[in-house]
Amino acid sequence: MSYICPVCGYPELEEDPYAGGEPSYEICPACGFQFGFTDEAQGFSLESWRALWIERGMTWAFAATEDVPTDWDPRAHLRDLEASPPDADEAHTS
Ligand SMILES: [Zn+2]
Q1: Is the per-residue pLDDT at 94 higher than 50?
Q2: How far is the CA of 24 from the centre of ligand 1 (A)?
Q3: Which domain of life is it from (predicted)?
Q4: What is the predicted pLDDT for the residue at 1?
Q5: Cα 7 to ligand 1 centroid, rounded to whole Å
Q6: Per-residue pLDDT, 84
Q7: Which helix (H) or strand (E) holds 23?
Q8: How confident is the model at residue 90, as a pLDDT?
Q9: pLDDT per residue over 14-64, tens digit each?
Q10: How far apart are CA 84 and CA 23, in angstroms?
Q11: Ligand 1 centroid vs 10 CA: distance in angstroms?
């Protein structure tokens, strides 16, 4: 089972980012958002981090330590995300 990143649409997260309202503390390897930290400790909303990440050129956040997956297409993932946003986006706007 894999989960979709509600920030960038990366479809291979290992844990539900906000299962039952509790953050997973997983870091999305694509956009670098850490659920429960980037939002709660650093104060970014999903939307503001997404905008920042797009502005920075949609780079693979873990590129320093991991190869970028060859089938990763950030623009396609963002389009999919816009077409069907995960519930977590609504549940975690506060
Ligand atoms: Zn992401």
Answers
A1: no
A2: 13
A3: Bacteria
A4: 87
A5: 5
A6: 85
A7: strand 22-23
A8: 53
A9: 999 999 999 999 999 999 999 999 999 999 999 999 999 999 999 999 999
A10: 21
A11: 5
Centre of ligand 1 to C-alpha 6, Å, is 7
Report, as an integer, the average pLDDT of 1-21. Answer: 95
> Which tokens belong to 89?
């986006």
DSSP annotation of 27 reads B
- Residue 92 to residue 22: CA distance in whole angstroms: 10
Distances (CA, A) of 30 to 20, 64, 72, 94: 23, 12, 9, 23
Q: Is the pTM of this model over 0.85?
A: yes
Q: Which residues contact 91 (CB under 8 A, 6 or more apart)?
A: 18, 21
- Eight-class DSSP state of 35: T
- The rounded Å distance from CA 60 to ligand 1 centre is 9
Distance (angstroms) between ligand 1 centre and the Cα of 35 equals: 10
